[in-house]
Amino acid sequence: MGVSELTELNQALRKYFGYDHFRGDQEAIINNILDGKNTFVIMPTGGGKSMCYQLPALLSEGTAIIVSPLIALMKNQVDAIRNVSEDDAVAHVLNSSLSKSEINQVKSDILAGKTKLLYVAPESLTKQANIDFFTAVPISFFAIDEAHCISEWGHDFRPEYRRLREIFEAISNVPIIALTATATPKVQHDIQKNLNMLDAKLFKASFNRDNLYYEVRPKRDVEKEIIKYIRQRPGKSGIIYCLSRKKVEQLAELLQVNGINALAYHAGMDANTRAKHQDMFLMEEVDIIVATIAFGMGIDKPDVRFVIHHDIPKSLESYYQETGRAGRDGGVGECIAFYSYKDIEKLEKFLQGKPIAEQEIGRQLLFEIVSYSEASICRRKFLLHYFGEEYDDSNCTEMCDNCKYPREKTEGKNEVVKLLQAVVDLKEMQRSKHLCAFLSGDRTSEIISYKHDTYSNFGIGKDKDKTFWNAVLRQCLVAGLLSKDIETYGIIKITEKGLDFLKNPKSFTLVKEHDYSGDDTDTVVVQAGGKDTFDDVLYQALLDLRKQISKEKAIPPFVIFQEPSLKDMTFQYPINLEELTHIQGVGTGKAKRYGAPFVALIKQYVEDNEIERPQDLVVKSLVNKSGLKVQLIQNIDRKLPLEDIAAAQGKTFEEIIDEIEMIVQSGTRVNINYYIDDILDEDNQEEIYDYFSEAETDAIEDAYKEFDGDYTEEELRLMRIKFMSEMAN
Questions:
Q1: Nearest to 282 by CA among 265, 294, 300
Q2: Which ranges in 509-576 belong to alpha helices (H)?
Q3: Which of 122, 131, 274, 619 could disulfide-link to 160, CB 3.0 to 4.6 Å?
Q4: Phi/psi at 512 (nearest 5 deg)?
């Protein structure tokens, strides 16, 4: 692919989405789709999956059909795409929420070639009338969002997803792109097999979140432990997950009684209360949310510092998604789970009464979460192995409890040989439980019915119990000597590597497993490994000051100084307004407007703690106002229409808005009221201004959703410029 084509793709990215660069594999994925090839994308939440099908759809002939499981999710996506286009017909939804006339409008726009993306619920795709219609129009490609819904092994299985392939084949022979945020190797294989796309090129982003600290604690005095833990982290944002609504409400109440600022959140509450509690958490009016898994789907709060699991979740996928809500800003996030086998037994009871296949899968998923909880090897290594990723645990650097407090290690060569031999002797046809019973000499009903107690090596490891053999088995799986079969609910097979080990046994280090039974013991409260080296005490003081000023002036905290600026202050310790202007994201205007109390606090702190400040301050350059920038400001002062200014500088209207935003961010006040007054009446301006005054974030997409598309993205951006100019500079 030539440079010109690459730049064309980058130009398209700039034109439609306003970004200059692709993230991760996005560019390679888009090229693969544009080349007409089947594509499979596995990318953790927040990695930029939707861009992978949105941009190629906009660039391709015909309409792309995107299958999505949630109506709310579809609406958000359509709104976002309409934002970046001049014509609303560019994207539509087709689902049960539409009237007959709306459906006719959608079909007419597709026939006219205006619609590039059509979001469809799987149920709508199965209707014969729709299949006939799609057969008669050009389709660019099919995209399946949340593709794990296809797999019975996925944590959100939808039977209607299983029919997608036959429907696609009935409509058109075009490429398929399947996308998911969590897929273990077995789910991945299931998706590809079901969609008949084993030839698809796989793009898999790393699942490693190296700023998250993982720890599992025995579930003893759990409420007391949680309160103790939160009190050691005053003012920090956290989420606590519980399995039942009743437990959510009890725990939230208990925390409140203990002086902790916490609220409950679950699906049984009315929508208004849920929305109010979520907003209070986002606006930092409340520190802790106690929730069922209903909370978090649309949460993008960057500074959640800890996620606690009061109860262990039903699968490792759920655990990974829920812990992934911590530390999205790149700072340390602590993930603490409380584990007891009683909880697992409770979850097993919930499976009773379900179809046999579903029970088998549910038990297998529970077995994985038990294995993770009880394992003594690096938690990160175990988690990533589950998602099919190899990880060198020497990189964990104490970012999980097992690496921070290593367990006792013993030589396990002989035990590994016994286990591998048992797998071979039982013809690679048994699951973990059976193998452990066989080795420890436990005559279970299954052992007797298979007559395995008559084998010569039955009970060859009876000096150790089943728990020990389970630990050996887990460690052999992670080491790649054994594997679990995808198709048969977890039957254990021996790998090539395992056969080599049997022929030439070598040293194998076994790690002693945790004991999650027995007496109450004091649990060590773990501080996460030092990833952030900034001055945390000063940072807390600056956050408190910002919150106080935000309340006094009745403006959101982000208007005063954003968090990266506060962190920079803890490195550089500015003690006058001149030094403050060298801080990232702080211009002269902002320093003058808000800086005095901050530099006074820092000066006092430096004196009280006898801190040596870095003498050579790194000077951050302000926006370069030479040449065209000066001309732009002068033209705004002369009240020229922004379209005319853009044309005179050979730029698009959007590029001019980008430049004005950069000027305002650096602290220079720009008055574009003359232009806004022409396009928005006073009431509309007041409504948008009030929104930004109370918003938790200045993100345009949030504002667009808040107003349900009543205002264009440009109108909202222009009002944000006015707001930041007047309030922040």
A1: 300
A2: 536-553, 557-560, 563-572
A3: 122
A4: -65, 135
User: How many C-beta atoms surround the C-beta of residue 299 within 10 A?
Assistant: 15
| Residue 68 confidence (pLDDT) | 84
Q: What is the CATH number of the domain that holds 250?
A: 3.40.50.300
Strands 176-180 and 139-144: parallel
Phi/psi at 123 (5° precision): -60, -40
Residue at a domain's end among 374, 404, 434 = 404
The closest alpha carbon to 566, from 615, 532, 589, belongs to: 532
For strands 492-494 and 482-484, give the pairing: antiparallel
Chain centre to alpha carbon of residue 474? 27
Q: Angle of helix 356-374 relative to helix 316-323, nearest 10 degrees?
A: 50
If residue 337 lies in a helix (H) or strand (E), which one and from where to where? strand 333-339
What count of other Cβ atoms lies within 10 Å of the Cβ of residue 219?
Answer: 19
Strands 139-144 and 117-120: unpaired
Task: Give the pLDDT means over successive 10-residue stretches in the chain (729 positions).
Answer: 60 82 88 92 77 91 87 70 80 84 89 91 84 89 86 70 83 88 80 86 88 91 87 91 91 85 89 85 91 67 92 90 85 92 78 80 84 87 89 89 85 94 94 93 92 93 90 85 74 93 92 58 30 71 91 82 83 86 77 91 89 51 51 86 86 87 76 91 90 81 86 90 81
Amino acid making up residue 703: A
**Could you tell me if 369 and 457 lie in one domain?**
no
Of residues 667, 656, 630, 645, the one with CA closest to residue 717: 656
Residue entry with tokens 């790393």 = 206
Q: Cα–Cα distance between 502 and 518 in angstroms, integer?
A: 36
* Residue 622 within any structural domain of the chain: no
CA dist., res. 71 & res. 63, Å (int): 19
Q: Which of 44, 3, 15, 99 is nearest to 389 (CA)?
A: 44
- Confirm whether 528 is domain-assigned: no
Question: Which domain range does residue 28 map to?
Answer: 3-204
Task: For residue 676, list its beta bridge partners.
Answer: none
Q: What is the pLDDT of residue 438?
A: 96
Q: Please give the DSSP secondary-structure letter assigned to residue 710.
A: S
Distance CA 571, CA 93 (A): 49
Q: What is the pLDDT of residue 517?
A: 54
Q: How far apart, in whole angstroms, are the C-alpha atoms of residue 24 and residue 16?
A: 19
Nearest to 611 by CA among 522, 535, 516: 535
Q: Which of 204, 234, 257 is the last residue of a domain?
A: 204
Reduced to 3 states (helix: H, G, I; strand: E, B; else coil), residue 355 is: coil
Please give the C-alpha separations between residue 401 and each of 373, 405, 408, 482, 529, in angstroms, as whole numbers: 11, 6, 14, 25, 10
pLDDT for 673 equals: 92
Check if the beta carbon of residue 382 is closer than 8 Å to that of residue 442. no
